[in-house]
Amino acid sequence: MANTPYPESYYAASANAVPPRPALQDDVETDVCVIGAGYTGLSSALFLLENGFRVTVLEAAKVGFGASGRNGGQIVNSYSRDIDVIERSVGPKQAQLLGQMAFEGGRIIRERVAKYNIQCDLKDGGVFAAITAKQMDHLESQKRLWERFGHTQLELMDQRRIREVVACDQYIGGMLDMSGGHIHPLNLVLGEAAAVESLGGTIYEQSPAVRIERGTNPVVHTPQGKVRAKFIIVAGNAYLGNLVPELAAKSMPCGTQVITTEPLGEALAKSLLPQDYCVEDCNYLLDYYRLTGDKRLVFGGGVVYGARDPANIEAIIRPKMLKAFPQLKDVKIDYAWTGNFLLTLSRLPQVGRLGDNIYYSQGCSGHGVTYTHLAGKVLAEALRGQAERFDAFADLPHYPFPGGQLLRTPFAALGAWYYGLRDKFGF
């Protein structure tokens, strides 16, 4: 079988060394078969192993091949739709439970990094940057909302204050979340994979799940082997394909683009982001950026609906970077890549169970780094019979895209065009 390597990216080029992992070539038995070795799958596997389950993880390519190893590397709290939107949709009781969980993912990441000594350049502090007065009003109400749910590490920043943390003239203010932060995302997922193996879990790479035999004792088939399990966790997200048709109809892979500069040197890097916080702006089609451990700028933004790879990523993203930081006009771009995240129509994650023993979580809609770590814990709780938090997610309404898979891309692109106009003209 063909060996699928990591796509070229700064993260792949600077990844920590890892042992080669075999492809599955025989029949194995386990308590839980996890499909997908990204954050959701490995977070689930870790929580299950810590609670005595036998776990086998199947990965179609390499650990962290998908969004987990290619994202912007930002620890951003809450969900892609905030708790007030959820409250209007599902009522105060369910929203209360989801609100309490909205800040847990970042804590789980920090616990994992500390417990398993994961080297992933973890830094504290994330900035939401406002370009318009309307966005600043939104941040003020967001701070009040998050504080209602016990999240207090927040500071509103006026224009003078935000200039102390980011050397960009576009912003009129912002909000600093000290429980936010940033990481080298591929090194985080590689460290989590090593932790899974340290607890006796098994990870097979180059072993795509090609068929699930459902029933009392489900079986996951790969090209050269199969896994018999009591439970299955489906954690393929934007890279699941059509393995589970019920899930494919309710979600859409979307591409986002990222570039990384050459090393900037200590002085230039510190002049851009003196406290080494990460930043995202408040536009609907937002830009996000941060420094790496070796003082490069990682800058991302833009969405390609339907997950096509654009021909020239640098041509899309570099102008955005120069709008924020014109002082980088002579800086070389060393890496440019794209990766897919999974969008849902509601922008809320889809969590559920198929039959009695197949569990899934998907559709982080761009808020995956923290949510996936929480999802792993919630899925593991459900398998142990503690389903209250799982049910709070599972009861969120799921909607298919209008027109099914054929029309979902043009509908979403039309929506993005509309929101792009809103961002541009501030209405």
From TrEMBL:
Protein name, per record: Gamma-glutamylputrescine oxidoreductase
One MF annotation (Gene Ontology) recorded for this entry: oxidoreductase activity
Taxonomic path: Bacteria, Pseudomonadati, Pseudomonadota, Gammaproteobacteria, Pseudomonadales
GO cellular component terms given for this protein: cytoplasm
Keywords tagged on the record: Oxidoreductase
Domain of life: Bacteria
Record flagged with keyword Oxidoreductase: yes
EC number(s) recorded for this UniProt protein: 1.4.3.-
Pfam family name, one: DAO
PANTHER family hit by this protein: GAMMA-GLUTAMYLPUTRESCINE OXIDOREDUCTASE (PTHR13847:SF275), SARCOSINE DEHYDROGENASE-RELATED (PTHR13847)
Record InterPro entries: FAD-dep_OxRdtase, FAD/NAD-bd_sf
Enzyme class: oxidoreductase
Record-annotated FAD dependent oxidoreductase domain positions: 31-381
